[in-house]
Design a protein that fits this description.
The complex is a heterodimer of chains A (about 550) and B (about 350). With about 550 residues, chain A is mainly α. Chain A folds into two domains: about 20-50 and about 330-545, MetI-like fold, CATH 1.10.3720.10; about 60-240 and about 295-325, MetI-like fold. Helix content of chain A is about 75%, strand content about 0%. Chain B is α+β, with helices and mostly antiparallel strands. Classes of the chains: A mainly alpha (about 550), B alpha+beta (about 350). The interface between A and B is medium-sized, with 27 and 32 residues.
């Protein structure tokens, strides 16, 4: 957690090194690169003709605001409830099979929510869904099944595929907690449940807030699922304005409001964290002994298994079944591997190279920012590091809009090239790279570099020979995270791609929207698999996943 | 009145072969401070946790103020034992400020009463000014005092302290233990205090309980532990003793540094060990002596010499601060105790 130090205390502890102008310039340029698209949205929103504002204020904005906030609230609470309870079960109790369940509960992160949505929709759709059909055949009459469409469906699906954020962060928090905190509560008169409510959960607040923030921002940016389940939010409305009606000034206005909303949530989280900077106590750390579930063991296991079933087994199982169906049917097989001049291989290649390039670029750009912030801590460097993290708060559709407008105006040679997609990925996912690089650098003592300097290395070769090899694992983790999220990205890719440039995500989306589920399934499976690899690399960095 | 009575308790953890605590019994009187001392892993902390109710004994019983809280058939959870505990890492709740931490154990009382108690406790530990601070903004000594105030606030019949000063640096540790001892004595609190530091145990405890490998080696007043160590281990751990091998004769014990005129009830030519501390040993320069000076440490008020006897045994000896002799000098070492020394046969005092 970033410590907020008043400027004067910084002056007392003047850094050993003087200010580096070169590094400041590099970090400043990166910040500028991030700032321009964001600022441009606000300029366009403010510059939209008053009529557009008035029209939107009268009709759409309030409805969208209500819809969006309601969904954010519902999914965040749902993800917190599931994520925290699953983390408690796997980290603090004697739940059977918890080592295995840890993986199963983290893996839904590899499944984009819209793919999960496609599967659940195909299963449960009111008319023509697989389950209602089977039930009707069985009972000879239509049987009521819950519909995945609309608010409840969207909230359900998005909760299922975003709770792992909360699960992973609160699981880490549960593990880092001292056994003695709960024991102290017990000796002061708390029963075990009271200790959980009065001490453990409140002490976990920073971890929970971080998880909730990720979920909330993810929901603000979500396009695929809400469009699929016909629930209108800011993101999907902006998408429609951009792709269908082509009303850029209305889209700008909506984007301005959406980004303000995201920044508000981000600010709220920073405030929450700032009030509660919980120290990690150093000495005598001991993990808390697991709670014996006793006769609740079976019920708890069924609950965890149910979550795994809905969020992992069902989507992967159905995709597998559809894929087999596609491979057995020559006509579909033909479509999968050869649509026009392109096939599955091309989509995979497009996905991989754009995401890898974005991951590499994001880490390369994040490095000077992180170096500047960690090695020369001052107001400017801190501000730049913070600013480079606003990408979290800018949904893909907004970045797409901004880039469409900017590229058209300023960089026409980039127009309709896949490079614009890569730029969008970098802008949106750089925060992950900045955070990873920062934390890797913070774990490294600056005296290591100083020792290399004393041994006769120049600043540059000290960095290359000592610092870089040591922070490389951290940088790779950042790159894996950017790669993973870029691979799953849908709305910006849909809006920015040149005609005929399909990635796996795009193809799955288009085929599934047209109802060709079997045809979409192999591509979706490939996408899930390609995401699961960097995800498992990231999970393995945590010792409990080894 | 007996506040705590521990009877034959044993505890073995599933993963280990050795019992962590084996057959330990002792009583604690009202207003007494008992220090449990021993090397790390000797079972002293486990004993404390058994009394707190954080672990369950395999055998034996524990009674607090005459009420059995743990036995083969009874097990009272920690929240129902009325015992306060100060943890090694202090375990302050990070989401609560100082005042709320101290008030944590007072739930269920009237608000006015809670406020008064918290104010009183913070006054006692001298932290009124920091009532609104969060734990992360406190220094080590301040955290320590909050932890103590929190443990004392519900007026427990017994206070358990698990190495409470071990996370503080040296100067602060000395200062804190003076403050804490004064406070505990002023409140007439009954305290069980765990430490691995002999000096701290001597300072804090009215009585000492020396532990080794899960067993209680000796229980007694500090002077008794020091002057009449029950086992070789106690003499070694508590007194930094060296051990001279000797043979019993009719006139005393014959050792490498001469005849010790001290009679023991053992037949002649029995092999024994004599515990000697630096203050029991003296020497003078002698070219035909029995040892050589290998090191001298100047301590201001005295010199500490390290001697190597011809047998290879190393002895420590105090000399006045003006007696400065060069390293390498051959000397004649002898016993100059002025009191009986502890003599051990097969590790036990004779």
């Amino acid at each position: 957690m970033q410590r907020i130090v008043p400027t004067w205390t910084f002056l007392l502890r003047l850094p050993r090194r003087s200010f580096s102008y070169r590094l400041a310039l590099a970090a400043g340029l990166v910040a500028l690169f991030v700032a321009i698209p964001l600022a441009y949205i606000f300029i366009r929103a403010a510059g939209a003709e008053p009529a557009a504002w008035e029209r939107l204020l009268q009709t759409r904005i309030w409805l969208l605001l209500g819809n969006t906030l309601l969904l954010v609230l519902a999914v965040t609470s749902g993800a917190l409830a599931i994520g925290v309870s699953m983390a408690w079960l796997t980290e603090r109790t004697d739940l059977p099979g918890r080592r295995f369940l840890r993986w199963m509960l983290a893996l839904p992160l590899a499944i984009p929510a819209y793919i999960g949505g496609i599967v659940h929709l195909a299963l449960l759709r009111p008319r023509g869904g697989m389950i209602p059909k089977v039930l009707e055949a069985l009972f000879g009459q239509p049987v009521f099944t819950p519909s995945p469409l609309g608010f409840w469906g969207a909230a359900f699906i998005l909760t299922l595929f975003t709770f792992p954020y909360v699960y992973l962060l609160s699981g880490a928090a549960f593990r880092s907690l001292h056994a003695s905190l709960e024991e102290a509560a017990r000796t002061l008169g708390c029963r075990p449940w009271q200790a959980l409510w009065r001490v453990t959960l409140p002490a976990l607040r920073p971890g929970l807030a971080a998880g909730a923030l990720l979920v909330a921002l993810d929901i603000l940016a979500e396009y695929g699922t809400v469009a699929l389940l016909r629930y209108e939010t800011f993101s999907s409305a902006i998408f429609v304005q951009l792709s269908g009606r082509y009303d850029r000034s209305a889209a700008s206005v909506l984007s301005g409001v959406l980004v303000s909303l995201a920044v508000l949530i981000l600010w709220f989280e920073v405030r929450l964290q700032g009030q509660a900077r919980f120290t990690q106590m150093e000495s005598g750390w001991r993990p808390a002994p697991p709670v014996a579930l006793g006769r609740w063991r079976a019920a708890a296991f069924l609950l965890a298994a149910g979550v795994v079933f809905a969020s992992l087994v069902v989507p992967v199982g159905v995709l597998l079944a559809w894929s087999v169906q596609a491979l057995l049917d020559p006509a579909t097989l033909q479509m999968v591997f050869q649509s026009g001049s392109r096939g599955l291989g091309d989509f995979l290649w497009n996905s991989l190279w754009t995401s890898s390039l974005a991951a590499g670029a994001a880490v390369a750009l994040a490095l000077p920012v992180a170096l500047f912030a960690v090695r020369y801590p001052n107001r400017l460097s801190r501000w730049i590091a913070r600013f480079c993290q606003v990408g979290y708060a800018i949904p893909g559709v907004v970045i797409a809009l901004s880039l469409v407008l900017l590229v058209n105006r300023a960089l026409p040679f980039l127009y309709a090239t896949p490079l614009v997609i890569v730029i969008a990925y970098v802008l949106r996912h750089m925060p992950q790279a900045v955070r990873a690089a920062e934390s890797a650098l913070r774990q490294l003592s600056p005296t290591l570099e100083e020792a290399a300097r004393m041994a006769g290395r120049s600043a540059g070769s000290a960095f290359l020979q000592v610092t870089l090899p040591l922070i490389l694992p951290g940088l790779l983790a950042g790159a894996a995270l950017v790669f993973l999220t870029s691979l799953k990205e849908l709305p910006a890719t849909l809006l920015l791609r040149p005609a005929g440039f399909d990635t796996l995500a795009v193809r799955v989306w288009i085929w599934a929207s047209d109802g060709f589920y079997a045809q979409a399934a192999p591509a979706a499976l490939l996408l899930v698999l390609a995401s699961a690899l960097p995800l498992s690399f990231l999970l393995r960095r945590e010792h409990i996943f080894k | 009145m007996t506040t705590l009575s521990v009877h034959n308790i044993s505890k073995r953890f599933p993963q280990s072969l050795q019992p962590a605590v084996s057959n330990v019994s002792f009583d604690l009187q009202d207003g007494e401070i008992l220090a449990l001392v021993g090397p790390s892993g000797c079972g002293k902390t486990t004993t404390l946790r058994l009394i707190a109710g954080l672990e369950r004994p395999d055998a034996g019983s524990i009674a607090i103020q005459g009420r059995v809280v743990a036995s083969e058939v009874v097990f009272l959870p920690p929240e129902r034992r009325g015992v306060g505990m100060v943890f090694q890492d202090h375990a302050l709740f990070p989401h609560l400020n100082v005042q709320e931490n101290v008030a944590f154990g007072l739930r269920g009382k009237k608000p006015a009463e809670i406020r008064a108690t918290v104010r009183e406790m913070l006054h006692l530990v001298g932290l009124e000014a920091l009532a609104g601070r969060f734990p992360h903004a406190l220094s080590g000594g301040e955290r320590q005092r909050v932890a103590l105030a929190r443990a004392l606030a519900p007026r427990p019949v017994l206070v358990l302290m698990d190495e409470p000063f071990s996370s503080l640096d040296n100067d602060l540790r000395l200062e804190m233990r003076e403050q804490v001892r004064g406070l505990l004595q002023a409140m007439r609190a009954t305290v069980l205090f765990v430490t691995h530091d002999q000096e701290e145990a001597l300072y804090m405890g009215n009585r000492l309980a020396v532990f080794q490998s899960g067993r209680l080696e000796q229980l007694g007043a500090p002077e008794q532990i020091f002057h009449a160590s029950a086992t070789r281990f106690v003499a070694e751990f508590m007194g930094n003793s060296s051990f001279l091998t000797g043979e019993v004769t009719l006139n005393g014990i014959c050792t490498e540094v001469g005849l010790l005129p001290q009679t023991v009830a053992l037949p002649p030519s029995t092999q024994v060990e004599v515990a000697v501390r630096a203050d029991d040993v003296d020497f003078h320069p002698d070219r035909n002596g029995n040892g050589v000076i290998i090191d001298r440490t100047f301590r201001g008020v005295m010199n500490i010499y390290r001697l190597r006897l011809d047998s290879g045994l190393t002895l420590h000896a105090f000399k006045e601060h003006t007696a400065i002799l060069p390293v390498g000098e051959r000397v004649q070492a002898f016993i100059n105790a002025g009191h009986d020394l502890n003599v051990f046969m097969e590790g036990r005092r004779v």
